[in-house]
What we know:
The structure holds 2 protein chains of 2 kinds.
Chain A: H1 8-35, H2 41-44, H3 56-62, H4 70-101, H5 106-119, H6 126-135, H7 142-167, H8 171-178, H9 183-194, H10 196-212, H11 215-221, H12 229-234, H13 244-274
Helix pairs in contact in A: 1-13, 3-13, 4-5, 4-7, 4-10, 5-7, 7-10, 8-9, 10-13
Chain B: E1 4-12, E2 18-27, E3 32-36, H1 43-51, E4 58-63, E5 66-67, E6 78-81, H2 93-104, H3 108-121, H4 137-149, E7 155-159, H5 167-184, E8 187-192, H6 195-201, E9 204-209, E10 212-217, H7 219-224, H8 229-234, E11 241-250, E12 253-258, E13 261-264, E14 278-283, E15 288-290, E16 299-311, E17 314-320, E18 346-352, E19 361-366, E20 368-372, E21 379-384
Parallel strand pairs in B: 3-8, 3-9, 6-7, 7-8
Antiparallel strand pairs in B: 1-2, 1-4, 4-5, 9-10, 11-12, 11-14, 12-13, 14-20, 15-19, 16-17, 16-19, 17-18, 20-21
Amino acid sequence: MSDSRYGPKELVREALLICVAIVWCAPFYFLVMVSGKSDTDVFRAPLAWPEEFMFDNFRRAWAGTNRVTLGEALINSAVVTVATVAILILVGSITAYAVTRARATSREWIYIFFVFAIITPWQLSVVPLYTSFRQMGLVGNQLGIIILFSGLLMPLAVFLYVGFLRAMPMEYEEAAEVDGAGRWRIFFRVVFPLLTPVTATVAVMTGLIVWNDFFMQLIFLTGSDVQTLPISIFGFVGEYAARWNLVFAAVCVALAPIIGFYVFAQKELIRGFSGGIKN
Amino acid sequence: MVQINFKDVAKRYADGTDAVRSLNIDVRDGEFLVMVGPSGCGKTTALRMVAGLESITGGELVAGNRVINNLAPRDRNFAMVFQNYALYPHMTIFENIAFPLECEGVAKAEIKKRVEHVVGMLDLEPHLYRKPKSLSGGQRQRVAMGRAVIRRPHAFLMDEPLSNLDAKLRVQMRSEITQLQHDLGTTTLYVTHDQVEAMTMGDRIAVMNKGVLQQVGTPLEIYERPLNMFVAAFVGSPSINLLSARLERTGDGVICVVGEQRFGIGATPELEAWIDRGIVFGVRPEDVSLRSDAAGKGATLKAEFVLSEMVPPEQLVHLDLGADVVVAATEEFDGDGTPRNLQNGKIIARIPSEYAISPGTGEWAIRKGHFFDPANGALIASVRFDLN
């Protein structure tokens, strides 16, 4: 069997990878188990198999917290995420295009400015941001949080787009220029479609950050009727009692769209990370 | 259509490099002009300046009596074919070809009509709704041509459009492009480093080197009467044989001394001033032939047969003149015309392949030669020996 490619080495490697996969799956197991437990079971035997799977937990979780149902919170999260990602893609790509293709030497400084913005922690700016946003009436509504996230994540989007654009040959743009296209047409008809792989990367990376963010949404949206999923879920953790089974059930609901999206967009996502244009 | 005039056009980059120096060419209306030269000679830069993709740092570029130095590429109405075609990878062939019309805001129905016409002309119908990546090199080349042709531009600008094709396809596309240009009568500026392409395609050829225009002329003029050593050596394959020589006056007239060998060159007034001075004597391989084959008196050189490369219907015969007299086109010379570095004594003759050459030293006739000034490489005179 010397010609077989499946030897003991491969067996060990495979077994090891299966173990790693199991470890990775463990949190999901607990997530589903706990979400099906009764209020008392949660504390009695948190890791055990539930005696009876309480589907009712999902109904109770769906009712939500702070007068906002989980369904509404889901929609709020989706609106904030989609709008933020759309702004990041549109403004980020145009900004990056200007930063990479401008002839002015200031473009390097603008790029450095964006890079610095990435490494500056958001938390540093929370207090001044909150104060000025409240003065402008941007606290407790969707517009405010969309503007906030767009601003905070713009450096990341620009950084990703610039990296891709720098490696992109100028020829397509030059051809379009000679063909008679103006700046905007060159961008939207030629450059932007070629950015698809990195646009997918920007969408997924920033989308996940916005979708999962808890800190900013807690500060800017708590108590409002546009609260998003993380805030809704946090509502099950009260001052005196935390209903972990409902928290976990709500997390299951929150996870579903993300997993669905990942399965759907996996190929684009990988291509975006590996980069390159194939003509 | 339009004529394009380079008037002292120059390009100097920010780091001080001169890519193009004081270029003067008049591309006539409807003409196919090929710019040729080794890599880095400035030909592509010159073409890109015409397209508007490169700024002009000196002189004037005139198209149809209008200075276009500062005109945006989109306002020049030139069509360009790039070396890598630059087809938009996300668009279908139809969209690629239609793009220039889309930019002009032509109505959809008209676009469809014109694309169908062009596609028919270029044999691309079966691929109309495919993406460029699924086409072969030759087909992509045709799409690039289609995109250039569709707009009926003032001029075509082509930047080595055939260099990515295999040899056979290149020959085929060469004639297709020439035919197309001939049919449309559109002024064409074509850049290549391939002298065969230049010779076969161009109405006229502009030879460039190190940013300087060396000569403009028809392919025959360039070949028969190269204005300097660079042009003589660049055009023609195998390259011209350049030999270090001296002119002397004897009782019989002026003679040319190559190594220890000497032959008469007859009365040539241009060469009078060069007597007793070093000079470069250039002779093309096809102007060297077997002694018995040469008509008239001619000039002869004794050379030893080294080897023969058969390229029917010709053969390339390598000969050794027995003394180191061969110089390179880039040779440097001392003030008195003595080369600093002689290479060897090997020259090449191109004769019909059916001739058998006996080994050993034989007499070879020279039909025609060019004399160059060693100091600046300029042509002094071209002499036909078989007429003397």
